[in-house]
Specification:
The structure is a homodimer. Chain A has about 230 residues and is mainly α. Chain A has helices at about 15-35, 40-45, 50-60, 60-85, 95-110, 115-125, 130-140, 140-155, 165-175, 180-185, 195-210. Chain A is elongated, with a radius of gyration of 21 Å. In chain A, about 35% of the residues are buried. The interface between A and B is large, with 46 and 45 residues. Chain A binds a DNA duplex (30 and 30 nucleotides) through helix 1 and helix 3.
Chain lengths: ~230, ~230
Amino acid sequence: MRLGVSPDTFPPRGHEAKRLSIVDAAAGVFCREGFAGANIDLIAAEAGVSRQTVYNHHGDKEKLFIAVVRDLTERCNAGIFATIATFPDQPGNIEADLIGFAVRLNQNCICNRDGKFLRKLIQTEGERYPELFAEWREQGPGRTWPALAARFARLAYGGYLVIEDPDVAARQFLGLVNAELQTTFMLGGTPSESEVVQSATNGVRTFLRAFGKRPAPAGVKKQATLANA
Amino acid sequence: MRLGVSPDTFPPRGHEAKRLSIVDAAAGVFCREGFAGANIDLIAAEAGVSRQTVYNHHGDKEKLFIAVVRDLTERCNAGIFATIATFPDQPGNIEADLIGFAVRLNQNCICNRDGKFLRKLIQTEGERYPELFAEWREQGPGRTWPALAARFARLAYGGYLVIEDPDVAARQFLGLVNAELQTTFMLGGTPSESEVVQSATNGVRTFLRAFGKRPAPAGVKKQATLANA
DNA sequence: ACAAATTTAGACAGCCTTGTCCAAATCGTC
DNA sequence: GACGATTTGGACAAGGCTGTCTAAATTTGT
């Protein structure tokens, strides 16, 4: 829709550019101050436009807020699907490949600007706009989680993992690779890259202890290969 | 301090009662509306007192907010420690016992009113009061996570689990048993009891696949006992 | 029942915010 | 260079909120 083809009856190119910069600035201010605390003058200033222009483009504060959430949802979803497309379907080294995937997911979708903002807006104002966030839920987790589960199912079918319920496994994968980042997320912080890698590494190792095929067929002491840390 | 002994020079009994009802009402309003959107008149109305009484007790809006967060932190911490005290140190049936513990933790500390409110306030306003929430971090996760890790270490020492790093295991335990509740939490909802049990059951099963001692000493097909769901 | 402390209701000033209006300035295009 | 659309800045009304003040009503302890 946004990336559609040449709407030739388009107003000046700067028009759309301003719309974008307003939505961007608004996202930041809504996140920092909350809906009630967000100040249109401040949004206009941060967007580098006049207050009147904000009203020209978006009508009122509530419509602007809705535009912000829709924009973020759209961008985040695109990012998540692009990242899921890099899922290792035929891993050479399943541990390393899953860790790489988890790190990409975190860095490109969860810890980046859009991801942080969308998450915070959902947490903060989710109850105020039930239908808007129901829409997010359908378009977001409702579509991305099954997509991820399908990838894990394929990995199981290929003999790389032993999984009964791919949906549960997918959710637990996310829970595990983010287990060490919860406190940072809570406070709105951005984990350092090494924290992300650390959490992903620990998470994937545990995930594979639960769902991975045992490397040694039989006889060998089972935990010995892992427990020598 | 609050639970100290007999402050005999205490004003009327209703004084402290009113203070409590104000803080309680304020917690609800701050959560629903955010700090900026919270209305002192509304808080007073919900607390069943006059606006002036709110100011008499707490000075101004910011002090009231701080009192709310401190109160919630204190109560939640108490609840978490009380629940950790029920950790199964010598489990008869480790799966059932850990599931029970996870359910208690969720119901008594995370899904209850105080837990929901504290979580939302931290997410919403954490960046606005760095020192206040740093305090929460020290008193909360900083104390409860190690306490939980110590219990898991004891379980490993007792031969019930195989764990290298108890801190990591504790965080992953929490991540796993809450894996299926994330979306609900995001939107501020309260999961039903069956959802909590379901998530805890799946989480504990996976946790034990990763860290549990294999039930059959040797020879038997390893996943067979678990994979027949 | 009395005295002290607390609570209440209402009014009030000061401030901030939203959303509108308008004339002048600017921009993009032909 | 000229024209039309867009943007700008400033003024403006209407409304909401915080925090203070006061005198009257109520509660509490003795």
